[in-house]
């Protein structure tokens, strides 16, 4: 039967799931297409848990760099303004860290902490990066995401991710906004930062919710937080590997928010 199906698909008699999804999207039934992808995914033997986690994390890492950059720019603006008016900046404190951090060690610790005792997953080569909001750091973070996306096997989850992330405002779901508001992010206020590009000086527009470096959140808090990496960012909940695989409620919602958008 699988052989017959394969032959029929090749001959164009039978539509592939991907064809059906495309057709639904063309008919304006995007949610139906995502539901179809999700249904296929539930039947997959390999749930790609680690690959999906790493892809979501890679997206968060980009956002971290973008917001670190925005914080740097804000610090510069505040300093210039203070100089003009000959007074101390009112809220910014030390500039965002300009340091090439020992990320090999950091990444090694993270990998060990996340993936526990498994011996078959030792990374071949640990990424080196500077976590300082520079253009170089952003490039590295983008490259890292590209690698993670490449590692995610072609299938319903990857198609769903790509389709979701093409939609403007995909990150503004009720759940994501409530998560942002719960940790004191801009969704708790009327500033609208999460609906705008996070760093207007960049040619690419980046959207997302607040992390520790968000300048607007720092102003609202009255102090800055300068984590060295996304793994230290207290605006995100700490996740363990067991949470990821135990159908943890938060993880299910996170995956829905970043992959399915249902
Ligand atoms: Zn914010
Ligand atoms: Zn704001
Ligand atoms: Zn937000």
UniProtKB/TrEMBL annotation:
It comes from the Eukaryota. It comes from Aspergillus violaceofuscus (strain CBS 115571). This is Uncharacterized protein.
């Amino acid at each position: 039967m699988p052989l017959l199906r394969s032959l029929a698909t090749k001959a164009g008699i039978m539509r592939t799931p991907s064809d059906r999804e495309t057709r639904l999207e063309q008919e304006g039934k995007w949610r139906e297409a995502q539901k179809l992808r999700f249904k296929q995914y539930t039947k997959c033997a390999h749930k790609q848990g680690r690959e999906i986690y790493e892809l979501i994390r890679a997206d968060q890492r980009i956002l971290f760099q973008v917001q670190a950059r925005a914080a740097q720019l804000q610090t510069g603006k505040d300093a210039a303004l203070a100089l003009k008016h000959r007074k101390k900046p009112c809220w910014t404190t030390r500039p965002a860290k300009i340091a090439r951090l020992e990320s090999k060690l950091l990444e090694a610790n993270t990998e060990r902490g996340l993936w526990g005792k498994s011996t078959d997953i030792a990374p071949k080569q640990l990424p080196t990066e500077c976590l300082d909001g520079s253009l170089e750091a952003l490039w590295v973070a983008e490259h890292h995401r590209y690698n993670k996306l490449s590692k995610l096997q072609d299938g319903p989850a990857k198609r769903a991710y790509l389709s979701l992330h093409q939609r403007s405002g995909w990150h503004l779901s009720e759940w994501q906004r409530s998560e942002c508001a719960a940790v004191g992010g801009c969704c708790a206020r009327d500033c609208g930062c999460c609906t705008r590009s996070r760093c207007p000086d960049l040619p690419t527009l980046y959207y997302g919710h607040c992390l520790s470096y968000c300048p607007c959140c720092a102003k609202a808090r009255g102090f800055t937080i300068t984590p060295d990496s996304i793994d230290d960012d207290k605006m995100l909940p700490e996740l363990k590997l067991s949470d990821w695989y135990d159908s943890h409620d938060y993880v299910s919602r996170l995956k829905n928010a970043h992959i399915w958008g249902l």
